[in-house]
Design a protein that fits this description.
This is 3-hydroxyacyl-CoA dehydrogenase. One of its GO terms (biological process) is fatty acid beta-oxidation. The protein is an alpha/beta fold. It is built from 28 helices and 19 strands. It has a 6-stranded mixed sheet, with helices on both faces. A 5-stranded parallel sheet has the order 12-11-10-13-14.
Amino acid sequence: MPDLVHRHVAGGIAVLEIANPPANLISAPVRSALSAALAETLEDPGIDVLLIVAAGRDFCTGLDLPQPRGFAARGEREAPTLSALCAEIEAATKPVVAAIQGQVFSSGAELALAAHYRLAGAGAQIAFPEVRVGLSPRGGSTQRLPRLLGADPALDLLLGGRPVTVRRPPARALFDAVVAEDLRGAALRFCAPLQEAGSGPRPSAAAQAGLRDPVGYQAAIARRRAQLAGHPEAARHAILDCVEAAQLLPFEAGLAREADACLELAGSDQALAMRQIFLAERRLLAGAAQDAAHLPEEVRIAVLGGGPLATEIVICALKHGIAVNWGTRDPSRLRAGMNEVTAALTAQKARGAVTEADLRVMLDRLKLGESHKMAEGIHAAIIAARGQGAVPLPPGAPRFKAFPDPVAQVDLRFAPPVTHANFAEVLVGPGADPEAVQFARALVRRMGKLPLVVATRGDAVTDRMMMTLQAAADALVDLGEDPFAIDAAVRGLDWPRAPFEMRDIAGLADGAGRPRPEGARNWSALVLQTGRQGLATGRGFYLHREEGRVPDPAVRKLIDDMRPPAPQPRDLDALAECLMTALANAGARLLADRAVARSDDIDLAMHLGLGFPRWRGGPMMAADRAGLFHVKRILDSVDHPDRRLWEPHPIWADLVKNGRRFADLGA
């Protein structure tokens, strides 16, 4: 028997242990090995109960992604599918118990649902993350979960896609027992009464607890469908349809519906884009894990400076178990910030995210004082405001600026809001110390964020891409396009970064000094000259009223008087294509400058740092999908004086000539 599954027999109980480190991925070889072990064990007359466990800290943390139609390797084709393996487990003629520890995701979670009985360690978490890669589950969980839990709890798990604790609803109802320690021993003790009583299988397919209220079930489906109306992600609608089918169709027909949905989704543009984002996330996680040893278990940092950025960094660090010395030169700003920190952490307690004891521990980790004093006895300092750069630090303690500024060594740029966003850029300047880079990456990860390393002298990837979006929007207005149509085109991408609306929110003065090339205008400066300042005064590009924003016709006339409208205005799709093309050209420059290693780094920064929709991937994926020759022709067609923005970077011609894509760079 392959080493991927170990078989131990003790007193009529067969223990089948999955051993596929590091993630215990239920891959094709594991499925083959487990299927063979299951068949062999069921034929053994001396075995009464089967216990499925996994080696290591976690039961299964991997996401075994299905291949699009026609791309499966030979081993994948020869192994039982996940659905077939789960059916074998569920159809077993002897009771099958699954005991899970740590994290159990995706195919591991589906395998556990197929078992007749389930136990979990108290710290276990379960997740069905397929929705995050544009897929539906493929092992039967859209049919088993509703039968066990009902429609609403099943959809909470399937549409949430994130790990949830097994100790609380909805996951708690899936487990016969949650044990605090010695899970393996507790599972063997659980098996003994089943053996003694001659208990038979208890297939989830036959469960009726979740189907007992058919009217309530359909009401839940209708409510969720109304909530999803207009949602762009196809996987969410497919999962909802499958859960509805669990009530309406026989179990086997429901499984077939699920399999069809997964197969249809697997080759879709959405799934391919979301898969690439997922793989980029996983790559950054793996890189950060290698740097974890560079951070002490008990780490204390200084946050120097007052204001909103410093406050958010302090809150984030405390929430993730990092001790903080907060120093400023203005005691009043420190007191105001402390009130915000206390309020934010207390709100966490009110939501049940932390206990009273957790709250006390977090606040006990926080020290306040003058900057020089707070810089003593720390492992690193995050400079959150100007005027703190000269504060001396202990020998060897790195200093990271967190605000826009030229980068000489290593700095950080946190995606806003720092308290909730899970992304930060580690900016590596020409004089960077490699150990400081490793420390920064490990610190960002400890703060619950994905760290993207960027080689730069100043701009973060997100800064560069936002500047490009704004410059491209101004350029299109120069060419006669309507600013409100440009905003509508961006909203049509499901991207909440409509450039002229964003200017109103920030205040028009923020962009009024931005230089433009000869022959181009700064439209923010023009509108600002009329007394319109943006959202704060109720007038900018838009009129901001209680009922919402509306385009200001006076602004449209002002712009049209300065340049004639386009004789043949681009439609919204063409405007969006122009903007995405400009972003891809900026990304090409980042790749050519070796600011980032791969094109999906740029797309990931767009998603996590700028809110670009996950299901669209990003401008680099979009360019690859449309064809680089086609996208280059769009750049060539834009006749505008800002040539750095619109002239295709030389890397385009090289890639087109050699039949390559952006995704091939750095792969």
